[in-house]
């Protein structure tokens, strides 16, 4: 998984460098607030894929435009990991959910195209109670216009415990409006 994350970061950096030298983006209005809400769907990675093969979420994001091409973000929501059967049995793994709380940036490198980076915490909720709180990093590539925001992102969550890493490779479709 570390190789996949490094590949995403390298590809994002190269894309950003290429586009920032050839165009000026003016997608987000400076000194304005926007709120967006929408569904996320994704494939669990790392330890999360052991008990689930699909995750679905609803997320909300506040965005504040610092300039015409740079914005601050605060995002939260709730992921549900749909459990699968334990191998060789008819018993399912325990159902669980994750609540991300993160803040970050959105940098538009071409008209309507952006690269995002957020960091925060991922809180786990199990059927039997609460689980660990994990450190969360989330890079994203997306397209946004006045009302719609489409993004491919990766949620990388881990603790200091060995073998505690898991993630979600997800797509977000959101509708936004100015505040």
Q: Could you describe the 3D structure shown?
A:
This protein is mostly beta strands. 11% of the residues lie in helices and 62% in strands. The chain contains one helix and eight strands. The protein has an eight-stranded antiparallel beta barrel with strand order 1-2-3-4-5-6-7-8. It is elongated and about 55 Å long. It starts with a helix and ends with a strand.
Roughly what is the average pLDDT, rounded to an integer?
86
What percentage of residues falls in helices of 4 or more residues? 10-25%
Report Rg: 17 Å
Strand order of the largest sheet: 1-2-3-4-5-6-7-8
Q: How big a fraction of the residues is strand?
A: over 45%
Distance between the termini: 38 Å
Count of separate DSSP helical elements: 1
Number of distinct beta strands: 8
Summarize the biggest pleated sheet. 8 strands, antiparallel, barrel
pLDDT below 50 for ≥5 consecutive residues: which ranges?
Answer: 17-26
Order of helices and strands: HEEEEEEEE
Structural class estimated from helices and strands: mainly beta
List the helices and strands and how they pair.
Elements: H1 2-20, E1 33-46, E2 52-65, E3 70-83, E4 96-110, E5 113-126, E6 129-144, E7 148-158, E8 166-178
List the main descriptive attributes of the protein structure presented here.
8 strands, 179 residues, mainly beta, 8-stranded antiparallel β-barrel, elongated
């Amino acid at each position: 998984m570390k190789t996949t994350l490094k590949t995403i970061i390298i590809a994002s950096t190269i894309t950003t460098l290429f586009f920032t030298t050839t165009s000026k983006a003016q997608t987000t209005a400076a000194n304005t607030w926007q709120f967006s809400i929408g569904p996320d769907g994704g494939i669990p990675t790392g330890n999360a894929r052991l008990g689930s093969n699909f995750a679905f979420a609803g997320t909300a994001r506040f965005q504040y435009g610092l300039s015409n091409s740079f914005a601050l973000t605060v995002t939260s929501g709730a992921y549900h990991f749909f459990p699968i059967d334990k191998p060789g049995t008819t018993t399912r793994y325990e159902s669980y959910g994750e609540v991300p709380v993160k803040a970050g940036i959105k940098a538009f490198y071409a008209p309507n195209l952006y690269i995002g980076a957020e960091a925060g915490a991922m809180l786990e909720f199990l059927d039997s109670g609460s689980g660990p709180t994990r450190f969360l990093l989330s890079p994203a590539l997306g397209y946004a216009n006045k009302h719609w925001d489409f993004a491919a992102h990766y949620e990388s969550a881990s603790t200091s415990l060995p073998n505690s890493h898991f993630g979600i490779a997800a797509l977000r479709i959101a509708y936004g409006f100015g505040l």
